[in-house]
Amino acid sequence: MSTISVPAGTAPATTRPATTKKKATGTAGKRRLPLLPALIFVIAVTQIPFLLTIYYSFQSWNLVRPGSFHFVGLQNYADVFTDTTFLGALLNTVVLTVVCVFVSLLLGLGLAILLDRKFVGRGFVRTLLITPFLILPAAGALLWKTTMFDPTYGLLHFVFGTDVDWLSQFPLAAVMAQIIWQWTPFMMLLTLAGLQSQPKDVLEAASVDGAGRWRTFVSITLPHLSRFLQLATLLGAIYIVNSFDAIFLMTQGGPGTASTNLPFYIYQRAFEGFDIGQSSAMGVVVVIITMIVATFALRLMFRAFSVDGGTK
Amino acid sequence: MRKLLCLLAATALFVTGCAGAGSFGNGGRTLVIAIVSNPQMKDAISLSSEFEKANPGVHLKFVSLPENEARAKITASTATQGGEFDVVMISNYEAPQWAANGWLENLEPHMKATPGYDENDFIPSIRQSLSYQNQMYAVPFYGESSFVVYRKDLFAKAGITMPAHPTWQQIADYAAKLDDKNAGIAGICLRGKPGWGESLAPFTTVANTFGAQWFDKDWNAKLTSPEFTQAANFYVNLVRDHGEVGASSAGFSECGTRYAQGQAAMWYDATSMTGTTEDPSSSKVVGKNGYAPAPVEKTQASGWLYTWALGIPNVAKDKDDAWKFMAWMTDKAYAKKVGETYGWNRVPPGTRQSTYEIPQYRDAAKAYAQPTLDGIADANQQKAMVSPVPYPGIQFVGIPEFQDLGTRVSQQLSAAIAGQTSVADALAQSQKYAATVGKSYQEVQG
Amino acid sequence: MTTAVSGVSGRKRRYGAGSLTVATWIVAILFVFPLLWMILTAFKQESDAYTDPPKLFFSPTFDQISGVLKGGFLPYLANSAFVTVVSTLLVLLLGIPAAYALSLAPVKKTKNALSFFLSTKMLPIVAAIIPLYVISQNTNLLDTVWALIILYTSMNLPLAIWMMRSFFLEVPGEMIEAAHIDGATLPTLLRKIIMPVVAPGVAATALICVIFSWTEFFYAVNLTAARAGTVPVFLVGFITSEGLYWAQLSAAALLASLPVMIVGWFAQNHLVRGLSMGAVK
């Protein structure tokens, strides 16, 4: 397609940035120039508001009490750490993220395995299965709240024949069910991509060698999939840890604070309590916690993907 | 790929055109109205094209959100002088506080300048609740108190007659008798959904009539007082033993659906419930309903007072047009318009005395018009509380911190109703929250 | 493969495959049943929408759909489409050069920049909502589509750069070197050599951005009002605190999700390919 001549005997894959790097040292600055617009944009949009958040976190400021704005030092932080609801919300966030990522990954893997063969209507089935990922999370949450979980008219009531009020007896589990439902297709797509990128010759060789399906799966497919699974875990975690829609629309964090996670709790402090000082302090604390966790997660991730190593 | 990009570009062009038509101004003045998405307000939105026809050059744009979300947005916008809205829907909780903060336009001059508006027609207690220093800062769209609806057929079958002024103890006894788990009929429906405007509204009226209070007149929090504990135990036990399924997440609409489907023998809630209970298209119990005043224990009356009203933020740009629209939505003619267009049952109740003199309305509402009016008239602190309190409001504490405090306490109450915590623990936790708030007022006083 | 297998076990396998297919179908239908139910409910009358037992058969009606359309759906749709398309184009505009630079730049810096981009994704967006509100108010961006466009661009940019970088790594370094020697400028380079290789990745990235922008709820609800409200905001308007309107709600949910559903259905192959690339590189 391109008219530019390619040096003879190009060895793809093995020689890449590492080799270009040496020759390009002189122009490295220039080469990184295209990065700047994106970098500046992201810094401006994400970091400036955050600096303001830090500033607010040292103030006492209730939006609905005019004249309440004054400096209080670390008082807001002290309050955050002694607030049992905050700690409960932190715990809920961890539980929600871990369970949702794990279960949706498992379900996604199962569905992907089912889809990774030829059968009648495969394209249609895949289309069906990815659809929950494409509807608005807000719509999904409302849908589950009403037509699924309603204790009198919900489908679960009809199927199980019980009067269980899911949203008040198992609030966190109900919210998690919705989130898992929404995210399973995403996990499925990723693992399916992994399954389909398996080298066919290796699989055939294994079946010629008489390896059973299970053994082939464990010793060939799983190791091949591991990167895809890690990617799915990371991306899923990033989005699920910030879950807000489902809790806001399904349980409002209740009953009590049984299904309150950190994003929802901070929202409540800010938009129901209008306590800007304290909600900002919570935001800062959450950011610090996230940064600690994220440093580990990213390090793990980059080791797995060997960004440094340059191996493919 | 190229196809996809072309598609994107084409869509972009197309929607830019649409957006140009839709959102980037269209000549004339556009009023932005923030409103709570309840049925009566939706009727108003449907009818509003008539206003636009009568006032060429003024366009209306509604932002219609559910109560919690609307309140969060409207408060944030008004408090930061955001200026997104020309007209906001607020309640008698916000109006006096915001007026005191100087966030709202004084409506008295506008009312006086509008011939035929007749502000003296508003029911006095409602008018009072939206005033600050005897000036109205918001005009009521609908008003409500609380009362009990009950199934006359089930009462007759059980051989019970509802007294003219029932007590809570009597109601509890009836609920126990009428509770029929096999038939799927709860003794009584009571709200348990968290939110200061949800479960706390009925609960606080119960607390009031049991002689409890949130704060005494020196701002000491009283949530663990014997009266408060007794009231909380009464409410939680009643709804746990003889209440509806899923009580801890049932609010007004959930209770309404259950009662209208014939799944409860009684329901204590807002007087505006008649829009649900008497609506033949959704209610299976039309004509079987009796209405009794809010039950009492130690007080003369115990109904609450609530109104959704319209106000103008002081930063709004076009106050005269804003007022024109508000006047249209709250004047005497509006009730007639709704009655003739959608049926008399859908007229927003509880604001104007003249509405209750319309013969068709009196006829359509004969089962509940008088109890509603009585409830609203009796809804004041003197009649509904045992001892004086330092804050305005009946079913709420009229201070800015109450949204937050109330929501937190209501979460505790819900948890107790769901059985996740004991009443004593819930109140102990709530007392802590309330004490912090009380202290900040004691400091101001001291 | 099956042809190589002899008669008996071949039949067995086919039989097994057949039942597996049936099982797959059943699982798939069960999994999306909530959604199918929503679609059914959208065509019900309110009185059919909440019944015990639930009604599978009813006389369908378009009342709810037309009610939603008449309820002022179109401006929200236009806002959503505008915000989604513009922010996605912006992401590509900023993201492609960045991904290009990151696939060539020295290793250490790459890691730092990538970490930085990804770490911004992990920050809780609620933590910054009040400052964002105050800032957009002071810059007159409150309740405009531009506030959302800026935020969605920064929201999607990290993931987009990261995904696209994987594709840029596919481009043989020698080709770029050679082009450089020939004196090709960056735009030529991008158009002639790089784009053909990375196009599927860009498409997949664009799709992901479209999905996330269209479905975004939190910023939209808190930073827009009448003028710039997007589809999720419209949907929330259907929750009322008085009375349940499941049929109407379902109709609104269906209409709100439909555009991105259709885009996703048609482009699902791109999505699979794009995501798989992101994992290997």
Would you spell out the secondary-structure blueprint of this structure?
The complex is a heterotrimer of chains A (312), B (446) and C (281).
Chain A: H1 17-24, H2 28-32, H3 35-57, E1 59-60, E2 70-71, H4 75-82, H5 84-115, H6 122-134, H7 137-148, H8 155-160, H9 166-169, H10 171-196, H11 200-208, H12 213-240, H13 245-250, H14 262-271, H15 276-305
Antiparallel strand pairs in A: 1-2
Helix pairs in contact in A: 3-15, 4-15, 5-10, 5-12, 6-10, 7-10, 10-12, 12-15, 14-15
Chain B: H1 2-22, E1 29-36, H2 39-54, E2 58-65, H3 67-79, E3 87-91, H4 94-101, H5 108-112, H6 124-129, E4 131-132, E5 135-136, E6 139-144, E7 146-151, H7 152-158, H8 168-178, H9 200-209, H10 226-242, H11 252-260, E8 266-270, H12 274-277, E9 289-293, E10 306-311, H13 319-330, H14 332-342, H15 359-364, H16 369-378, H17 381-384, H18 402-417, H19 423-445
Parallel strand pairs in B: 1-2, 1-3
Antiparallel strand pairs in B: 3-10, 4-5, 6-10, 7-8, 7-9
Chain C: H1 7-42, H2 46-49, H3 63-70, H4 73-104, H5 107-122, H6 129-138, H7 145-168, H8 173-181, H9 186-215, H10 218-223, H11 231-236, H12 246-266, H13 268-280
Helix pairs in contact in C: 1-12, 3-12, 4-7, 4-9, 5-7, 7-9, 7-13, 9-12, 9-13
List the defining traits of the structure above.
heterotrimer, B: 3-stranded antiparallel sheet, globular, C: 281 residues, mainly alpha
Give an overview of the whole structure:
The complex is a heterotrimer of chains A (312), B (446) and C (281). Chain A has 312 residues and is mainly alpha-helical. Chain A has 15 helices and two strands. The two termini of chain A are 25 Å apart. By secondary structure, chain B is of the alpha+beta class. Helices cover 47% and strands 12% of the residues of chain B. Chain B has 19 helices and ten strands. In chain B, helix 2 (39-54) links the parallel strand 1 (29-36) and strand 2 (58-65). With 281 residues, chain C is an all-alpha fold. Chain C is built from 13 helices and no strands. Chain C is globular and about 75 Å long. Classes of the chains: A mainly alpha (312), B alpha+beta (446), C mainly alpha (281). Chains B and C meet through helix 1, strand 1, strand 2, helix 3 and helix 11 of B and helix 4, helix 6 and helix 9 of C.
The residue ranges of chain B in which pLDDT falls below 50 over 5 or more consecutive positions are: 15-26
How would you characterize the largest beta sheet of chain B?
Answer: 5 strands, mixed
Envelope shape of chain B: globular
Number of strands of chain C: 0
Radius of gyration of chain C: 24 Å
Instruction: Describe the global form of chain C.
Output: globular
> What structural class do helix, strand and pairing data of chain B support?
alpha+beta
What is the typical, i.e. mean, pLDDT of chain B? 89
How big a fraction of the residues of chain B is strand? 5-15%
Give the N-to-C terminal Cα separation of chain B.
71 Å
Q: pLDDT under 50 segments of chain C (min length 5)?
A: 1-9
Q: So how many helices of chain C?
A: 13
